Each structure stands twice: as C-alpha cells, then as structure tokens.
Amino acid sequence: MALTGIEVFKLLPKTNCGDCGVPTCLAFAMNLVGGKAELAACPHVSDESKEKLSDMAAPPMRPFSVGSGDHVVSLGGETVMFRHEKRFESPARVAILISDTLSEDEVSERVQKLTDLSYERVGRILQAEFAALKCDSGDAGKFRALVENVTGQSDCAVILCATDAAVLDAAATVCADRRPILYAATAGNVADVAAVAQKHHCPVVASGNSVDEAAEVSEKLERAGIKDIVIDSGARNLKQAFEDQISIRRAALVGKFKPLGYPTIVIPSEITDDPAKEAVMSCAFMAKYAGIIVLSDLSGDSLFPLLVGRLNIFTDPQRPLATSEGIYPIGDPDTSSPVLVTSNFSLTYFIVSGEIASSRVPSWLLVKDTEGLSVLTAWAGGKFSGDVIGPFVKKSGIAEKISHRTVIIPGYLAPESGAVEDELSDWQVLVGPKEASNIAGYLKLWPFDEEAK
Questions:
Q1: 326-443 CATH fold
Q2: Which end of the chain is more exposed for a tag (fewer CB within 10 A), N or C?
Q3: How confident is the model at residue 131 (pLDDT cuts 50, 70, 90)?
C-alpha cells in the first residue's frame, strides 16, 4: 500500500534545511507522495530511508535503455500525463520496418535512409533511431541473415519481430550487445520468449488483443524476472489504438498499475497502407503517448515534420533551448572581422548565425547567457541590458582576436546603446538591424567607416 505524506515525513531527516527546494520536510514529503518531487532532491536522506522509499521514488513508468555506443536509446521514465505539469522524459522513438523478404538492395536502401535522413535543428540532431527487423519468411536462417546484414551496415538500435522464440533466439545472438527489443511475447508464447529474453538480457514487447490481455502477458513476464517491457495493446484501428495509448498511460501514471507501467509501441502501417495517413497517425501517436512508432518506410517529406513535431512536444517547457555562452567564429573570421552580440536562446542563435553565414562576411558572434531567453524577453527581464552586455564583451576575450574596437548590438536594443558605450568607453557601439533577415545585407557594408576599419 502507498505511504501517506506523514509516513514519508517520518523517514526524512526533518531538518527543514530547504536544500530540496521547498522550505520544510513535510512539504517535501507531500510533494513526493504527489509525484511532484524526486527523492534524489533531498541530499540528506539516509540510505535506510532511501531503500524504504525506493518504490515511491521510482517513476511509475519504468525507464530503461537499449542500443549501444553512440546509439543508446532511452525509453519510459514518464511521470506526468501532460507536458505542462512537469515535462516528458523520453521522446517517442521512430523505427523503420525491414522485412526478410526484401532483396539485399532494398534492405540496403532502407538502412541508408535510416542513416541519411538526419536533420540538424537548433543544435539537435533529428533522426529515426530503430530498425524493426521482421521475420515474414518464417525461415530462421533467412531472418538471422537479415539481422547480420542490417547490423553490419548500421549502429542503430534494433527491434526483432517474430512470434517463434527459436527464431528470436537465433537473431538475438547476432546483436545481443545492442539489447534488441524482442517483439513479441503473447499469451501463447510468453514462457518461451521470456527464456530468450533472460538468456540475452533483452527487453520484451508484451502483446495482446486488448489492453487487458497485454497487461496479463506483462504480469507473466514480470513473474519470469523480465524487468524491461514494452506494451502493445494489439489494436489495429486508429480509434482504438489511440484510446489504448491514453488508457495505458493513465493506468500507469494515475492508477499506478504496474503491469502497464512501461512504454508502448504502435505500428501505424498495420492500420493503413497509405503513407500519408500513416504519417498523420504517427503524429497523433507521438502526442498521445507512444514510446516507439514503427513506420513502413522513411521519407524525408513526412519524417522531417514528424521529428520537428517531436522536438516541440518533448522539449522541457520549463527550460528553453539554450546555446552555450561564448565566442562563435562564423566563416573563418580574422582580426578585421565584425563582432555581433546576441542572446543564447537557441532559435535566436541559429537564425542569427545562419543570416551571418549567408552574408558571406566572416564574423565573430558573441553569445551571452540570458538563461535561454530571446533578445527582447531577456532585455525586459534585465538579463540583456547595457550593464550586462558591456562587462560580457570585456570578459569574453574578443578584444584579443580583433584589431578594431567595434561591436554591433541587436536593433531592438537600441535604447541600451548608450549604456553599452558607458561600459565600453573605448569601443564604438553600433546598432544592427531589428530583424535577423536584414543582417546579411547589413554586414555586406562592413567596414562601415574609417574608425571601424
């Protein structure tokens, strides 16, 4: 039975030190019970209490990782139904389906898509993570050859799809170091698949014809000692599959129902054979609440917006994307190149740096830490004013890289130009364009005057 707030309070140090972020231990205990705090936030809790509170401290959806090396993929760990409550922990992962009935050229083409369809946006690399390898032939040797082929060409994480435990065993032997996900354990083969999972230390998909049946398979896997599980409700129509995702999430997070306390997997290609509809369905499942989405194929015109949508959904709403403070050379600048200043909101940085690059004028871009806020927001909050910019320019070290003393501030900071000049008495402070789209044309006029030379 779950502990009450008072019972948790009795296990805490009761120092009211505030190191956990709240003023009293009782308040922290109530937050812990309500899922609004993590036990690790208290640096003084005893080991004995940690052990007693470990179940409560653990997320209601079990977190685990698969893959290897630079391609380790995290799953699960979710604690909230809605992003604004806290944040979503593990982005929905994307897989491409590869059948052992495809020719070698077709297999290579799909693996190449998995590698090539990679996009950089606001400093993040966006791409699919999994190859879902499916045994459609029923031939264990042919399926194993497919696994060897794909894993030889790519370091991606792997899902092995077969209903025969012997086939899964042969395939898992090839790529056990990547902790492949075994798809799937059902009511009819759960014992055999659990044995394969234990042998190779692999996660398993608990699949059923309904949420209830998937939960029963999950319970059997748990009793067999399998801790890392993925849930497949078995629904193969959009309405039911969508409802199942929400039901599973609510049962795990709100109902604390452990047999469903795992990430889920959906296969839109088994609902429709229309690639456009498959992409739309994937968007719905990404928002509510799939852990892995298996696509029949990858296409840039559908994958890119899907990945951008994922980035938006799974970005922590309490922590804006931010770029590290520092000096960023763009286009191999030298001592005579212009110097511009901007905030460290990632979108601002990438837009400004992109416009500078398009001007083909080698430049130095100074990025000030504004706690991830944009230029105007940071200025309004007192984090990007003249008395902040001036000392930053002095301490940045840019003076050692240039022969002039001219700095360009964003156009929206024109009211701060005098304050910047007061801080940088031996510098010329220029006000740049208000809109980033005008930066390229503005920089083409550099040097602006004799003093700036």
A1: Rossmann fold (3.40.50)
A2: N
A3: very high
